Here is the input.
Amino acid sequence: MAEVEYRGVSRRFGEIQALHDLDLLVADGEFLILVGPSGCGKSTALRLLAGLDKPTSGEILIAGQPVTRLGPGERDIAMVFQNYALYPHMSVFANLAYGLRQRRTPRAEIQRRVRETAVLLDIDGLLDRKPGQLSGGQRQRVAMGRAMVRRPQAFLLDEPLSNLDAKLRTQVRGDLKRLHLELPVTSIYVTHDQVEAMTLGDRICVMSNGEVQQLGTTDDIYNRPANTFVAGFMGSPPMNLVAGEVRGGVVRVAGAALADFSSPDAPVTVGFRPEDLRIVGPLETDSVPVRIDVCEPLGSHVLVHALVDGSGAESSPTKVIAQAPPGTTYDPGARVGLTVAPGKTFVFDAETGRAAPPPTRERIATA
Amino acid sequence: MAGQDAAAFPPAARPGWVGRLRRSESATGWMLVSPGAILIGIFGLLPVLMALKLSFQKSDLLTPETPWVGTRNYRQLADDPRFAEAIQHTIVYTALFVPGTMLVGLLVAAALNRSVRFISVYRTAAYITMAVSTISEGIIFLWLTDKDYGLVNATLNVVGISSQPFLASTSQALYVIVAMTIWGWTGFAVIVYLAALQGVPVELHEAAAIDGARPFTRFRTITLPLLSPASLFLMVWLTINALQLFDEVYLTTRGGPLHATTVIVYYLWDQAFVQFNAGYAAAMAYALFVVIVIFTALQFWLSRKFVHYS
Ligand SMILES: Nc1ncnc2c1ncn2[C@@H]1O[C@H](COP(=O)(O)OP(=O)(O)O)[C@@H](O)[C@H]1O
Ligand SMILES: [Mg+2]
Here is the structure.
């Protein structure tokens, strides 16, 4: 186990800047999530750490030692691939033992460690099978086992659950969390699924276009998104983002005053989460007037899709989603209002997308 | 699907076998393959059966009398020292040619299985030996190994080795033919191995590298086992071809010098069309056929231990 550090790491592929000046310190034993849309450079970051690729510039350290010039076999890390990359011609036992054999581990020790790991992952009944004879979930566990059996300095996991069906994914997600608690090895977990990111990580690093957008705890990311990208990416469904303005110390969307906000008058992007919205009558004061688009009943709640009427100048109306109690129905086209729970309005710079200081604090300050 | 459709829309009822034939897919299939099948029957199967009959007869291919001799031709094979010699040459040739071609093909394919500039030029260069006709191949090697003007001897002379007789030597001729046929078949082996190599997922190499395996270990423990179906195919294919070696011998040494390169099929040809012992030659052909079948079966049986199918 060891801490892992990226120092100003960049990687270009010709014209494409896959990773831009990444600075990241993963603490010893931490479970860090790298999350972002497809193509944002997550795998590139992981492959650079594994030694499967070399950075264009910057330095990578494992346990304080620079490893940028070392090959993948000399870094003492383990990686779980998206498609598992199990050796198809070897038994499960041989798959697990392969890394130990390369490191000249004594035969008895290999036997012991493979069995121990297999028991931990509940694959001890499968040791004689070939990967082709396993189910998706079993293969996933064998891939985990192959990484764990070597007791590496760090685990790198590149979308390890994306080939499983939804039900299995939820279950394995729980298993992963439990495993990490039992065996706290420094882990970097790549995913494009923000639900996975929220449920698994100690800390989350949100990436876009090869750059870190925000690094923080689940709570930070959810309740204090650093910019519109993070706000619009995390949460399911993510935060609604609509054009608004600050005028006279008040945040307004389509005329409705949502919160006090002491800053100079300016156009802003206003954010509010679906679960912080309440649907009210169309004429209620300080409610955002919207037209119902469609209602999506999900059992525990209903997602109401609606369109904010533009101030007239805007061409296309902005879509918003509100979470409503079960049984809620509206006819498409019906006019209603939306109110935001107190302290749950987010304000972002209209140009840069960066978050303005948290509204709650502002309100206390001005109160 | 088809069954359901057929049930939903039964074709206009026609009684008896005509209706059944019209509806059956296999009848259509046979109709489509019949031009090829008939030609193969006439020019392939028929001679095979006629040769079988011939192997129990005495025939000089000229006189119409072809008396039955029972198994005499086969019994004669066992006592023919020149046939024994031909078998020995064939075994030596096959034992060198098959592994040699596979090894050279594998090394060249591995070298070509990467993305560097002009890779398609190199790949084409490797395949090109396949496009060279056997006649040109024979002539090229006659030139290359010529005692007085050959490039090989010229090169040997430069490094201080005296000229070698090569194809004119009883001790060297067979090995020159081995080298020549390996050269001629390398392109084929390269294509087969290159295609198989491209089917080996890159992630397996990456996983093995992370597991600490060095490049050669990765090649031995990951690549080679995953190439095993291709290796089996090449082994069987090249062995069948090696046991039937003829063209190259005919073009370069005519079985000489002093029978040194007389392999089974060359001896067979010599018996049939030079000595006019066609019945004897036919018996030889059938003996060879049995050997090839046994060899192939043996290779498939052995392959259960080393071939991995994904
Ligand atoms: N070997 C490569 N050659 C060229 N471009 C690459 C290569 N690997 C990744 N890229 C590019 O770098 C960017 C980031 O890729 P990647 O790290 O795989 O994204 P992610 O894993 O977040 O989906 C993408 O635009 C991708 O096309
Ligand atoms: Mg990826």
Observations:
- The mean pLDDT of chain B is 86.
- The two ends of chain B are 29 Å apart (CA to CA).
- The pocket of magnesium ion (ligand 2) is lined by residues A 42-43, 158 (CB under 6 Å).
- Chain B has 15 helices and no strands.
